[in-house]
UniProtKB/TrEMBL annotation:
Residues 95-201, 236-314, 389-496 form the Plastocyanin-like domain. This is Multicopper oxidase family protein. It is found in: Cell outer membrane. Keywords: Metal-binding, Oxidoreductase, Signal. Residues 1-25 form the signal peptide. It comes from the Bacteria. InterPro entries: Cu-oxidase-like_N, Cu-oxidase_2nd, Cu-oxidase_C, Cu-oxidase_fam, Cu_oxidase_Cu_BS, Cupredoxin, TAT_signal. Residues 34-58 are annotated as: Disordered. Pfam families: Cu-oxidase, Cu-oxidase_2, Cu-oxidase_3. It is a lipid-anchor.
Length: 501
């Protein structure tokens, strides 16, 4: 069984209109942006009302995610371009600007919508002062096209990423940088964007969609994004503001009885977010690698950095329950920052009349369990704070780009037992494929996973273990690492060379 996360009743905080910039992202649905600071400051304390440097100003509306334009007129082919560069954003009423790093001047980056079978050709220009890459997180692309740290794009240089999407890969993915030693900084300064791969056999295509990309913003007294301090490097960075599509505490419209499909991305560098919608009916219908077999009613969903989910949300507006999208307390083992202690509002939800409740299929797609493994491994994630040069380890070693940590075989089923021998949670991510979680430990006891799903990221709680199976279908070098990006940059990453079968 899976550990259950139960709801706590909490009222929505009073909110005032705020948005980060009017040219950012999401769907054609109408919604405005609201804001009220409920997050912890960099020292773990709540920002005070007098601390005006930490208050985002009023704005007009929550923007819509702008799509990356397909420059190709050929069916089944997507051609586009992304440019990573600093961009000053006028957040403040007095004209002051905060500098982000952004793809195509958009925070978050443009939404890329693809179809199974598409030939993809996306150019990348690096206008930063650091090397960078684009990693197509969770997608089945060849290693040479996956933006690995071995393939940096130097400042001022360009490259093209080209790959063809296989059948059966429809799901909710994202893209972000992956240059070793710079990944966390480039992500927390704004470099991340959503990807949707669609299927023509999608059983939920009749539902209206919302796209909610969660990111994290930390500001200093000068209203700029500061570098990580020692506490951020240890715990993983969490800022004062959790943003949705670049806006702080937006308002989402949902009619009584209306059923919507929500795709949600956790694109923060380290924040584990426990999401809840206590006033509404919520069913989990998809994970990282697409739809699950049967809708699962849920009270809350835990999303670690890098994870995505698909929810079907039905407007109920239960009396006495907060109507909005909440982040609930979850302790992940931080030592140098305070843990979240109470429910915090990420978005308000307002009713706009009544709508018919559209049908939700009883089954979504077949998922066959992977068979008996041809090879087993143990992966131990550990911490060694006595060594500042190698504080985060995998199987006792800090990442070395020139070292191969093992070999695998294309087409062979592997079973991995991932162990967090640590005082913090460590979200585990494997490149190049999706895996099935078989079981997890809860309070030291193994419990079977209640349903099959395809994932590429899974949280491994402090002292816990997760058992998973996967198959790599393409040969080459694949990374696996903690997706708290500060930990990845400091050595909690390894690599396996998968050889042709």
């Amino acid at each position: 069984m899976q550990r259950r996360h139960f709801l706590k009743t909490a009222g929505l905080l009073a909110a005032s209109l705020s948005a980060l910039r009017p040219a950012l992202a999401q769907s054609s649905m109408d919604h405005a942006a609201m804001g009220h600071d409920t997050a912890h400051g960099s020292d773990g304390a709540m920002p005070t009302a007098a601390d005006n440097s930490l208050k985002l100003p009023s704005g007009e509306r929550l923007p819509a995610l702008q799509p990356l334009v397909n420059e190709s007129s050929d069916a089944g082919r997507f051609v586009g371009s992304l440019r990573a560069a600093p961009v000053p954003v006028p957040l403040w009423g007095d004209g002051a600007k905060t500098t982000f790093w952004a793809y195509n001047d958009s925070v978050p980056g443009p939404l890329i919508e693809l179809w199974e079978g598409d030939e993809v050709d996306i150019g990348f220009e690096n206008a930063l002062t650091q090397p960078s890459t684009i990693h197509w997180h969770g997608m089945p692309v060849p290693p040479a096209e996956d933006g690995n740290p071995q393939d940096p794009v130097a400042p001022g240089q360009r490259r093209r990423y080209r790959y063809t999407l296989p059948a059966g890969c429809a799901g909710t993915y994202w893209y972000h940088p992956h240059p070793h030693g710079h990944t966390a900084e480039q992500a927390y300064r704004g470099l991340a964007g959503p990807i949707i791969i669609r299927s023509k056999q999608d059983p939920l295509r009749h539902l209206p969609e919302r796209h909610l990309l969660l990111s994290d913003l930390k500001l200093d007294a000068q209203r700029q994004i500061p570098a990580n301090d020692m506490a951020d490097l240890h715990d993983g960075r969490e800022g004062q503001f959790v943003l949705i599509n670049g806006a702080w505490q937006p308002v989402i419209t949902l009619a009584e009885g209306e059923r919507q499909r929500w795709r949600i991305w956790n694109a923060t560098s380290s924040r584990i977010i426990k999401l809840a919608l206590p006033a509404h009916e919520v069913q989990l219908v998809g994970t990282d690698g697409g739809l699950i077999g049967v809708p699962q009613p849920v009270d809350s969903v835990l999303l670690s950095p890098g994870e995505r989910c698909e929810l079907v949300v039905t407007g109920r507006f239960k009396p006495g329950q907060p109507a909005g999208l909440l982040s609930q307390p979850y302790e992940r083992g931080k030592r140098m920052h305070a843990e979240q202690e109470k429910d915090e509002a990420l978005a308000g939800i307002v009713a706009y009349g009544m709508r018919p409740t559209l049908a939700l299929p009883a089954s979504l797609r077949p998922i066959e369990p992977l068979g008996a493994p041809g090879f087993r491994r143990k992966i131990v994630l550990s911490e060694n704070m006595a060594d500042p040069k190698a504080p985060f380890l995998i199987n006792g070693q800090s990442y070395d780009m020139n070292r191969i940590d093992g070999t695998g075989q294309v087409g062979r089923i592997e079973e991995w037992e991932v162990i967090a021998d640590a005082h913090m949670d460590h979200p585990f991510h494997l490149h190049g494929t999706q895996f099935q979680v078989l079981a997890r430990t809860v309070d030291g006891i193994w419990e079977d996973e209640p349903f099959l799903a395809w994932r590429d990221t899974v949280n491994v709680p402090a002292g816990g273990m997760v058992r998973l199976r996967f198959v790599q279908t393409l040969p080459g070098l694949r990374m696996f690492h903690c997706h708290i990006l500060e930990h990845e940059d400091q050595g909690m990453m390894a690599q396996i060379d998968f050889l042709p079968g």
